[in-house]
Amino acid sequence: MTDFPRILTRLMTEHPSDSHTMARYEDSGGYQALRHGLAMAPADVAAVIKASNIRGRGGAGFPTGVKWGFLAPATPRYLVINGDESEPGTFKDRQLLERDPHALIEGVILSAYALGCNHAFIYIRGEYPKPARRVQHAVDDAYAAGYLGGDILGSGFDVEVTVHLGAGAYICGEETAMLNSLEGLRGEPRIKPPFPAVQGLYAKPTIVNNVETIANVPWMVRNGGGAYAAIGPQGSSGTRLFSLSGHVNRPGNYEIVMGMTWGEFIEDLGGGVRNGRALKTWIPGGASAPWFVPDEHLHLPVTIDDTGKAGSMLGSGAVVVMDETTNVVAAAHRMVRFFAHESCGLCTPCREGCDWLERMLWRILNGHGRPYDLEMLLDVCDNISPGLRWPPAQTTICPLGPSAVQPVRSILTWFRDEVEAMIGAGRGVEGALVG
Amino acid sequence: MTRPMTQPMTQGTTVAIDKIVPGWSAPNRERARWLLERYPQRRSALMPLLYLAQLEHGHLTDEAQRQVAELTGLTAAQVLAVSSFYTMYKRDHVGRYLISVCTSISCYLLGGDDVLEAVEIQAGAHDGETSPDGLFTVEHVECLGACGGAPAVQVNYEMIEGVRPEKARGLCDWLRTASPQVVFGDEMQALFGGQRSFDWGPSETEGAIAPVPAFGPYGSVGGSS
């Protein structure tokens, strides 16, 4: 388990003082993969990514090679890098952007070459000015070195890169909302199909990939797709950056090979729960993921498929740990409040439903819960995500609404007694006020 | 100014920038010209141009939004649709220092609400409001991507991680007395921060000059620009 290549974090770990610079990146073998890749046919570079079996690191876990295969032949085509990292609990792309921007840029050039794109956009959330500065400087240096612009390294291939800053909207992490945002529109998702690979940016074929996904590309081109696929368990190949936060002793980003158990992840990597307290629950993959509880899930392997089968997801790789002192209704309220705030307002079930859920949880928290609130919470959830299944169905254009359902569903599944007790206690207070 | 692209993407951009925004500083007019060439279509420059307008005027005045509409070939209504959608575009007056306190889940679990309260009291402004002296605007914000260093605070979008309530009070006092023209993330982290999400590496020479994200084209100082 300890013997695997640090694909994403080696440079920043070995050279913390200058891993972001062109000089250090080149000294460490950087931009050699680009030379190698440009000597190959574009389709062969795409085949490397396909063979790697990497699944997108942004949240949905869709196989990148398959997504690339959907790209329509029309031109121009665009590549958009999703650096709008805003899922509560997630801070991995921020580290990659700040500490190793050239790995991303080399990955962008190789990916653009494989896909036949001559213009790539790197969309970075507005609250990340420092990562954006680092990336912009790296882009400038790459232009100066002849890695970007026209006729790259004499290959005849041209690519331009534009770094674009968001302005505080989580929804722009949804790929079609991101494209609208890039077009100077409100960040509202588009109805799919058509998918971006067919009609994306400016209605042209577009591939949208996460920062971490593309930062792996230089390593794959250097070492081969098969070498990447051989790392880790089947279906969850490669190394992956997990963001660990909450009530743990050692929060932070961890590059790991998937397959360890959740118990090992939280205990061995995270140093266990703070202050010697007991683990109550954790979110395995960002605020959109249903919660896990020790009795049921601690022994399960941390893989995309095992987590999915158990009714949740690895999502963006954000693990948020809550100890025994956590008021789960308050925690769920805090997450629902996030989604209510970030709902773009386009679809009624999400716009109204998230707001209802937030207000009902607030009411329960403040001692004004009513006996029928549990049923009403579930009813509102059901109107956003019919059947409350996993993976979730949706009455909305994008998955934001169904994401808001998950914290509510989680506390009503695992901590129903606590919610009921809070409502019961609240009723007493209300009765006293009336009486 | 960053290195120009090999080919300006928007062909034949003949926007009369000097005529539309004669009041803007020369560097910002140059930045506007540069931004308009960054995208295959002119309207894509809307978001960065709104930041630039906000930098010029302190907040997005109606007049500034009409000017940006003219620069991008949009209607004022189309611009308002966008400026009203994104939280970082401020259409009302903002204090000199915008203090954003994260109260999303990871920060909430580790005391972000207490930090917010401390900031509100010490800055003299409630959540969402500006202090009477115009120095501070305080806001609670959703996840800042600093969960490993919770609770997190940003001043003019420059990050400070691992902030405790007493440090938050110190931060407000320091901003009031030291009154820095430029706020640097590393400096504030050293003075008022704690646990970080990851090793930040070498310190940065760029910081923010206004409550607008300090990203090269929109007005940071230090480094290139």
Quick recap:
Chain A has 435 residues and is an alpha/beta fold. Helices cover 45% and strands 11% of the residues of chain A.
Strand % of chain A is 5-15%
Shape estimate of chain A: globular
Strand content of chain B: 5-15%
Distance between the termini of chain B: 4 Å
CATH topology grouping of the largest domain in chain B? Glutaredoxin
What string gives the helices and strands of chain A in order? HHHHHEHHEHEHEHHHEEHEHHEHHHHH
Shape-level CATH architecture of the largest domain in chain B: 3-Layer(aba) Sandwich
Task: Note poorly predicted spans of chain A.
Answer: 428-435
**Coarse structural class of chain A:** alpha/beta
Task: List the defining traits of the structure above.
heterodimer, A: 435 residues, alpha/beta, 20 helices, disordered C terminus, B: 225 residues, alpha+beta, Glutaredoxin, four-stranded mixed beta sheet, two-stranded antiparallel ribbon, 10 helices, elongated
Please provide a written account of the structure:
- The complex is a heterodimer of chains A (435) and B (225).
- Chain A is of the alpha/beta class.
- Helices cover 45% and strands 11% of the residues of chain A.
- Chain A contains 20 helices and eight strands.
- In chain A, the strands form two sheets. In chain A, strands 3-2-1-4 form a four-stranded parallel beta sheet, with helices on both faces.
- The longest helix of chain A is centred in the C-terminal third of the chain and has 19 residues.
- Chain A is globular.
- The N and C termini of chain A lie far apart (63 Å).
- Chain B is 40% helix and 10% strand.
- The longest helix of chain B is centred in the last third of the chain and has 14 residues.
- The radius of gyration of chain B is 18 Å and the shape is elongated.
- The chains are: A alpha/beta (435), B alpha+beta (225).
- At the A-B interface, helix 6, helix 8, strand 3, strand 5 and strand 8 of A face helix 3, helix 6 and helix 10 of B.
